Amino acid sequence: MAETSYIRNFCIIAHIDHGKSTLADRLIQKGRLVEDRNFQDQILDTMDIERERGITIKSQAVTIPYTAQDGNEYELNLVDTPGHVDFTYEVSRAINSCEGALLLVDATQGVQAQTLSNMYLALEHNLEILPVINKIDMPAADISGTKQQIERDLGLIPEDALLVSARQGTGVDELFEAIVKRIPSPSGKAGDPLRALIFDCHYDPYRGVVVHIRVFDGCIKRGMKIRFMFNASEYEVETLGVFKLALTEGEKLSPGSVGYIIAGIKTVSDVRVGDTVTGAENPCEAPLPGFREVKPVVFSSIYPVDSNDYEELKTSLEKLKLNDASLIYEKDSSAALGFGFRCGFLGLLHLEVIQERLEREFDQAVIFTAPSVKYRVRLCSGEELLVDNPIEYPEEGNVEGAEEPYIRAAIITPAAFLGNIMTLCMEKRGVQTNMTYLDEKRVELIYDMPLAEVLFDFYDRLKSISRGYASFDYDITGYKATELVKLDILLNGKAVDALSQLVFRGNAYNRARVVCERLRDEIPRQQFKIPIQGAVGSQIIARETINALRKDVLAKCYGGDITRKRKLLEKQKEGKKRMKMVGDVELPQRAFLAVLKTKDD
Question: How far apart are CA 599 and CA 587, in angstroms?
Fold first, then answer.
């Protein structure tokens, strides 16, 4: 283990798609952690879904050995972080375990919304920030313009910015030297009682829970008895070490080290990300300040397609919760779908990722209900309820008023797309509070918008309107009054509780029409007519009909009297009427998924 003065802990933060994972690849290659023949792009992105979408979802740590120009051997602990607005929580966890941050800015796109919010996050934790201008090899790169933006928008010294091309490896040697010289070494004394922060963990089916820690004070050794301060549970350290792509075993972790411990922890719920690990015999007095509490903003229910798989789904969610600390869930039930879980997510992308991970990693066939936000509902009795599930929404006559969460949306866009973006924001009930020209080409728009409007298709439409150039970031600001109604979907006259939604009254008709049309296309035809209706209270506001499959009962009639044909048709009509009264319509899983899709899909 290196001495504290030869350790550097840093993370890479940036807006989505500015080249964080590519730069991490170059740093790993320079550190000779992987042979060229075994190398693959996005080497720290271990999930298939990350590779397919080209995004980072989970922060990943790696220890890179580096011999500096002064001849000393340094240990560089790198944490690669996500860039999408949904995963700001992952970024905050990574920042908490570092002393410095590389703030990456794309030379072709300049400073964007997440660049700003991630920088403020790093400043809150007093990190040393190194501005890095990436993609300098691109034909559209504007290095002098990007330096001006770094000075004007970020308030950093443009001369300090390092120029790199992560794709070609240009400027990576100078970056290594800057990390060693400009990022401070960790403070902490080996003789003090152990204090280590759990910043992540993952589940290994053979070894149990692998806990990722950053040691601040004291040392942790093999065979040592440790205590988790959150629940006072004690364990003996079986194995520990550092991340060098694979888990590399060591003898001890000293102050400033980032590594892992395995202590025979079998129960997933015993480990809490943000908890402090200390020695059982010589504990520290107070825990380290933990992470900010995760605040889910989107709620949806998950049900197994086969109700017999409920226990398997429960186990899968427990394991997934360990790998994704921002997932929150509790038990739920539905008349249509049986037992399941009500889950809280950080955004719609987070919901999609959880759905894909459940299906791929845990082989679970699941149904998600339509996403919703948390509303405040005031009853006539004066009582106030927090409602995120349409099933819990009280009767219309008992409701005095409702409030919905609002966000402060910051959009940075080239001026050419300004008109279309303003139209989109107005369509989403946004109110403009500020508009600033950052320079002659870029504009920053600030809008107050309902969070529910951003959920469905806002981000996708923003990207398509601006050809991918506009960037978006948001903060929850509080609650404002709204006209809220419960939209029920009736199938053959019966309400399907899993398809109910809480919507703004002005959007209810459009939403009901879209859902009815989707269901009409997805539900297979039966021997009887199936009406699909959207209703607010007792009022039907949209309807689609699935026509019955026709059996030709007249096929055997070769001529003959018309009364004979009429008698057969009347008999068929009576049979269909009786079938409709007792017939049950089964909703296929794809019908639920179709309702979730945005209207442009």
Answer: 20
